[in-house]
Specification:
Length: 362
């Protein structure tokens, strides 16, 4: 079984000017985007930039002696990937610019991105997926009832700023929510930038509501969108996908397949399968039916109630909660009866839809 690390060993000595960007390269850049390059990579586009090799060295020096940990949901392999990629000819000389990391509880936004300047004159605009912050997860859930969340709007502005750095074409992409942001920006950007976009990669990124995917803007650009999901995808199957998604093989099971380091690689491509698993279809059907049974106000009330429970622990990250579950229990006990009722009613509805889905597929 080969992964992105084996790909680096195989293709690492060939530059992008010799062989252009492919789907595995896209995933690697999408995952490196999770690293906190604050104070290392310039924030402004069109000005200075820094080599990935230099940025990786600065980051590792600054965190020397620390345990490799970047949150409860992100594998420490992200840092290993950055270090390994930085040592290759293919990735090490890439220049980085436009690093942004905006996490704001009051505005309910978690947005981060960085632009890679490829040595063939193209750029890769990488959007970070959901990080460890509670507000980041809150924003994800807000997608179920909001026409556009703040990170999506920021993604459009970012793409338009990044376009000035491209001598030729533009790739965009991301993993998880990052894939959703890449697609949103591609659909909502200016006609001139749309013309310059080569491909947009959504790596197990959630979809959109029906209004968005039936819009003329989406329909006109969907041919440039590639959605890649693992066999047992859950995150990537959320909401709606109009474009054809491609299913790949993973060494993990269930929701753990969202970990892109488990995705199997052969040469410069992933190993493809015919369709997602029956488990993925069942969960997808259950969640969609669950959401369909709630109007927008009910969805918002559920999200707010869950977030209020988590926020009452005074935690700001998933790591905070996972290390002190007693706080979560206390927060639940202190929650008002109305919010408790909203959460329990929604959970009962979810189980009900789950049982329906199981019966349908028997």
């Amino acid at each position: 079984m080969s992964t992105v690390f084996d790909y680096l060993d195989w293709r690492g000595d060939i530059t992008f000017s010799e062989v252009g960007l492919n789907e595995v390269d896209s995933l690697i850049l999408s995952m490196i985007c999770y690293v906190d390059f604050g104070g290392i990579v310039p924030s402004e586009h069109g000005g200075s930039s820094v080599q990935l090799l230099s940025a990786a060295r600065k980051y590792l020096r600054a965190h020397k002696g620390e345990q490799a940990y970047i949150g409860a949901i992100l594998p420490a392999s992200v840092l290993s990937l950055m270090a390994r990629a930085a040592k290759t000819k293919r990735f090490g000389n890439l220049r980085m610019t436009g690093y942004v990391n905006d996490v704001n509880v009051e505005k309910e936004v978690q947005f981060s991105a960085v632009t890679f300047l490829l040595d063939d004159g193209n750029v890769y605009v990488a959007y970070r997926g959901t990080d460890d912050t509670l507000v980041g997860w809150k924003e994800n859930f807000n997608m179920s009832f909001m026409e556009a969340v703040p990170a999506q709007l920021e993604a459009v502005k970012y793409l338009e700023a990044a376009a000035v750095s491209a001598r030729k074409g533009i790739y965009t992409g991301g993993h998880s929510k990052g894939g959703n942001l890449a697609v949103y920006a591609t659909v909502k950007t200016t006609p001139e930038i749309k013309e310059r976009i080569i491909l947009t990669y959504s790596n197990d990124g959630p979809g959109f509501d029906k209004k968005f995917i039936t819009s003329l803007d989406y329909q006109n650009i969907k041919g440039k969108i590639r959605t890649i999901v693992p066999e047992s995808s859950i995150i990537g199957m959320l909401l709606e996908h109009e474009e054809n998604y491609e299913v790949i093989k993973s060494t993990q099971v269930g929701i753990m397949q969202h970990d892109s380091f488990s995705w199997e690689v052969l040469g410069s491509k992933f190993i493809y399968l015919d369709s997602v698993s029956e488990e993925s279809k069942r969960i997808d059907s259950t969640l969609k039916s669950w959401l369909d049974d709630m109007d927008m106000k009910q969805r918002e009330e559920f999200v707010e109630a869950v977030y209020d429970t988590l926020a009452a622990t005074n935690a700001t990250t998933l790591t905070d909660i996972s290390t002190d579950k007693i706080k979560l229990l206390r927060a639940w006990n202190n929650l008002n009866e109305e919010n408790k009722g909203i959460i329990m009613k929604s959970i009962k509805l979810l189980f009900k839809e789950g049982f329906k889905s199981i019966k349908k597929r028997k």
